[in-house]
Hints:
2 copies of one chain form a homodimer.
Chain A: E1 12-15, H1 23-29, E2 32-33, E3 37-39, E4 53-55, E5 59-63, E6 76-80, E7 90-93, E8 99-110, E9 116-124, E10 129-138, E11 145-154, E12 160-164, E13 191-198, E14 201-207, E15 214-221, E16 231-234, E17 241-249, H2 260-266, H3 269-287, E18 289-292, H4 295-311, H5 337-349, H6 351-363, H7 365-374, H8 406-421, H9 424-445, E19 447-451, E20 454-458, H10 476-499, H11 511-523, E21 528-529, E22 534-535, H12 565-569, H13 579-585, H14 592-603, H15 614-623, H16 627-638, H17 655-669, E23 673-675, E24 678-681, E25 691-698, E26 701-708, E27 712-718, E28 725-728, E29 731-733
Parallel strand pairs in A: 24-28
Antiparallel strand pairs in A: 1-8, 2-3, 3-4, 5-6, 7-12, 8-9, 9-10, 10-11, 11-17, 12-16, 13-14, 14-15, 15-17, 18-25, 19-20, 21-22, 23-24, 25-26, 26-27, 28-29
Helix pairs in contact in A: 4-17, 5-6, 5-8, 5-17, 6-8, 6-9, 8-9, 8-10, 9-10, 10-11, 10-13, 13-15, 15-16, 15-17, 16-17
Amino acid sequence: MGEIILTLRDYHLTLNDVADHQPEYLETVFSLANGHFGVRANDPITGNPITGTLINGFYETAPITYGEAGIGYATQHQTILNLPDLRHLHVATATGHDFTNSERTGVDLDLSTGALVEHYTLQTLQGETIKMTVKSAIGQTKTEFWAIDYSFSAGNFAGGLVVSKAIAVPAEAEAIASADPRKTRMAGLPICETAFVSRDLQRYHVKTRQTKLAVTIYLGILTEGASLLRQNVDLSDQGTHSLTYEVYVGEMGQQNTIDPAATFMANSLSALLADSREFWQDVWNRSEVTVGGNDELDLAIHYNLFQLNQAAGRDGRTNIAAKGLSGSGYEGHYFWDTEMYMLPYFIYTNQKMARQLLLYRYQTLPKARQRARALGVTQGALFAWRTINGEEASAYFPAGTAQYHIDADVAYAVGKYYEITRDIDFIEQCGFEMVLETAHFWEAFGSWHQVGTDSRFEFHTVTGPDEYTALVNNNYYTNRLAKHNFNLVTYLAREILKDDPHGLEKFGIGSADLDVFDNLAQHVYLPYSQELRINEQDDSFLSKPRWPVDQSAPENFPLLLHYHPLTIYRYQIAKQADTLLADYLFPEDLSLSQLKREYHYYEGVTTHDSSLSRSIFSILAARMGDTEKAYHYFMDTAQMDLVNLQKNTADGLHLANLGGSWLALVAGFSGFYVQDEVVHFTNHLPKELTRLTYRMKIAASVLEIELTATTTNVTVISGPIPTYGVSVNGHLVSLEKVS
Amino acid sequence: MGEIILTLRDYHLTLNDVADHQPEYLETVFSLANGHFGVRANDPITGNPITGTLINGFYETAPITYGEAGIGYATQHQTILNLPDLRHLHVATATGHDFTNSERTGVDLDLSTGALVEHYTLQTLQGETIKMTVKSAIGQTKTEFWAIDYSFSAGNFAGGLVVSKAIAVPAEAEAIASADPRKTRMAGLPICETAFVSRDLQRYHVKTRQTKLAVTIYLGILTEGASLLRQNVDLSDQGTHSLTYEVYVGEMGQQNTIDPAATFMANSLSALLADSREFWQDVWNRSEVTVGGNDELDLAIHYNLFQLNQAAGRDGRTNIAAKGLSGSGYEGHYFWDTEMYMLPYFIYTNQKMARQLLLYRYQTLPKARQRARALGVTQGALFAWRTINGEEASAYFPAGTAQYHIDADVAYAVGKYYEITRDIDFIEQCGFEMVLETAHFWEAFGSWHQVGTDSRFEFHTVTGPDEYTALVNNNYYTNRLAKHNFNLVTYLAREILKDDPHGLEKFGIGSADLDVFDNLAQHVYLPYSQELRINEQDDSFLSKPRWPVDQSAPENFPLLLHYHPLTIYRYQIAKQADTLLADYLFPEDLSLSQLKREYHYYEGVTTHDSSLSRSIFSILAARMGDTEKAYHYFMDTAQMDLVNLQKNTADGLHLANLGGSWLALVAGFSGFYVQDEVVHFTNHLPKELTRLTYRMKIAASVLEIELTATTTNVTVISGPIPTYGVSVNGHLVSLEKVS
């Protein structure tokens, strides 16, 4: 791989009109992360010193209190810890005037290297000003490290400065109760121990009380001979003086026997910048997407992929939180968003990462088995709807645990991973067990219902992806995915048997079991409206009244922040793509005319109050040839966080939407999907774009796809000429290798 | 009324095998109450001194904490206060040995007078024993008063005693968190002030912190010259020595300017016993039910009516809590149980009390209007599912607020009250407004659904009486009651117009509005299974799988204490009568053959985990002529608390079931119902009973009904010969007055 290196143009996310943005928004947007930990871009002077750093999977639990508890309810909140801001700094004049005011005058994030540069003007209460430039970078293969450099120069003040920096220890704080379920809560404060190993090195040890997780963080000042707590800087020479600091964030639970001083030397800011640059070069080389005709959009899609890569846990024990490592919204939980919205990007561009993300889910399988039992299902496993440690942490089951579809989503992702990688080892070691256990779950969870001569296998009292409709029967999406789960388990079983005739023995199943699954797959009921000639979202969705026009003023959205769930549930109103999400996943299921009917129908009853919605609407609009609509939805998708569309970017980025924006380009504008070992591309480029180019890896081949208004080129830029079929605009083609 | 006085035979609830019963069970079963306050029968020596007294409607609030809160959720718990035990006593020998051990050797509650007599043997750690007899009574028209007399006599000890008695002030206690939603919680402790006005009088003032309610309680010792805190008793004469105390429990919020000493003199124990006796004579005279052939059952039904009368708030500002004043289960909340299970007894035997109970609901109408708005319903009112003060206090909306049927239940009760009383004043002042506001609610809450040529008016995402099935569409019970609500509003409107041609003007409705209601009533959709030829519980109930046989072991019941709601909801399993409850209310709706089919079907899927279930099954079995089954269900109903059938009588009596047991006799065995100004009686007396006799008041006439295996007699014992029709065993009869 990598024979042809793309030269990334200068992709800088730059803000000069910083004052127009709320600080929390900037902290999120310019956060740096590496899958292990994230550093929000707090203002070093005025930002909150006790929050800003998030370590993936470093969480605390607290009992969930219910107004009225029930059997089998999730018992423990899991909450990612908001650790002290690593960027905080105290600056004063030598005469003792603190610089308490700070204005961020410019920010520049270089997406090709990961370097973040910011410019500040600091001011004391007495009116003295200086300028400060801050450069920072996070290690991308050296994932324990982050470094920052503060350069000071004179403003109206040009005398002596005293600079001090330390990791702040949080004081007691109260738990936050919020009516907004998308925000986070403050868990019990961890046990913190901090010590100054030497004048240039602080150790900070943080241990959780309930989960017994521990991390050691070191803060050092790299500037030779300098002191952390009191460092003099003299600006009277009118020069620029910089102080460089480095932070080491250990792995959870590991004894940190490092020699920080030596380690820091080897990982200076410039070393981290080089490490970061190399990492991003590789990322862009694998997966760069360029869009012609709209520079802003081109930048946005680069930004999205940048943040997606920053957020993803790489160790097989962590995953991608709903807000990544950019904010503590949704408590740092992992959802089905990973498998359905983010994993595709990794499956098609970085299969090792995709495997790591699936491994995380596999590790939660024992807890998923317990959860199935707690739900009265006698076999199989039910993955947690929201979780860090694998246990269910949803405190509102109608829109949490009842979304059983997560099981089929995980199975679907395993299938997609295998389809492209043919990684039979992973299937035999982990993947098949997940698909088998989820299939067993559906088998025991569902029930037969005889309607006339029709034997239906049905699923009752479930919630589909649309959280504005809860506890319904035969949610189309759930049923369709469960059907796929049954099909997949027999398919993968036969793949294993090809590889090893005894390969199924360890799973305790034989051909009779496969026959059962085949039979179930054939009989899963898929609701369809004869009247409207569309798939029905569920057995009753279409019979409910539409949301009242007089309650449809823009200020009433998102509905979940303005209406009781009972109010929302009784109407025919969807938060997001639901049946259409299944249509997107299974293009072969329905004719173009039916798709158009369904799209038209469900678009009329969907609020897009979820960030998971617009990307799917964009993809399907493209598939239907309505590229104008596809473009419209895509633009909201692509720039959702940059324009703060959902107005809560302060809580963190909408990671699933970042993945969705990639899907919209690839599955939408270029019509990509894989079916029966044929890879399909169809040119649906909107007229607003002059060109779309991207790379993906399928089996061992790296393909480059380039679309213009009149051309659709797919070439092999690395690896062998594919053995699978490639269809371009409906015609099978032979690929050529460019070299 | 009252020309013929029944002489109540000696109905004593007596327990001599007291040791076989847990103390909390006895405390509940022998509790005394008068609608204003209740005194549980705590052991005076070993019982918990800080709980045992409950004042109807005296409650505290505390914020409801949700794992994940939502818009419009109930915000405040309302919890009846557990006030100090008024029966507690401290007894020691003059040598300082405390009597710390106590054995209750006998209890006798005289249902004809309300006198409670108990016998105890007390023992010190040193082995000294004495005997104590305790007599107590609560005022029934003098509802502020309760008195108790303790008589001491020698056991193996015959020396001096020191007796002290005071109202105990509770210390700080922790909130109780329980997974059993049927239990109560401890609210924040109230502010208590206690003072000894004199050596024979203690004042106890208790004030809630949030609700700002206050009550003053006085405890006095009536024995002349005696002291509350230290009273010597000398048993050396081998005689019996008694001390008599009295308690005054003020009305909430009233300044207590009474002269306790003088007041107490006028209300001595003997005066209270006389007051109580008179009250119960009147109750039995109005409403006595006697059953021949089973003395135990005869006693049980007397006990049930006794407790029902004790529990009911009589002031128009309080109601009947789910556990009455016998225990703090369900937090002292009022539910729909009042209107549907308890009010009928009062409507047909004590119309003034029935009116007071409806007045309570009327007073909550302003809060019910607010609640409807909070649920996104633009007109009408939604009564709180569970409440003391009229605000919704259900912390689990799928089995709380979603039971919208409470609106139609209240309307139904108003209609039943009017049907019998013709109390047009009440309708014009209160009743019509409730029926109109609930009809307006249904009008705005429902929606039209066109199915072929059929225009249905439907109700979506509701929970019916069966709490094991939640958030469904077109619950038959709900729809049928809503249809009745529409019919009733037009009926009552026309009744008002007869009384006063301008009578509707103040309600702002005219004939066009009545036409709208008429039209809605005609089109309310009632689900019916063509296949099974039965009414369907809801749109999807019959398509769900049955509860698995392998999870049907007795120890798995009640299901709500063993399974996650999601597990229960996805099966075709009912906690209680639901569609059958509607069938009971509207006998004219269905043929006997359909009733039999429905009964057979729903009996097979009902667990009777609710105490509201068996009485309805008994009534319908009787109506179907299956008197054996009717008797079987009735026996569980009649003795539910006396045999501790639900195993939680310790938390309080099942008041609705007490009412239900009366319904089972009257509506079941004697086939009583009223339809189109005809009062129907049909003899369904089970062979196990030789006779059933009861009284009821319809319009101004008191009827006595007497059934034997071969006879059915209905006579007028007071008031005029009725102008309405009376049907006995299917034939209209002319009644004669016995005198």
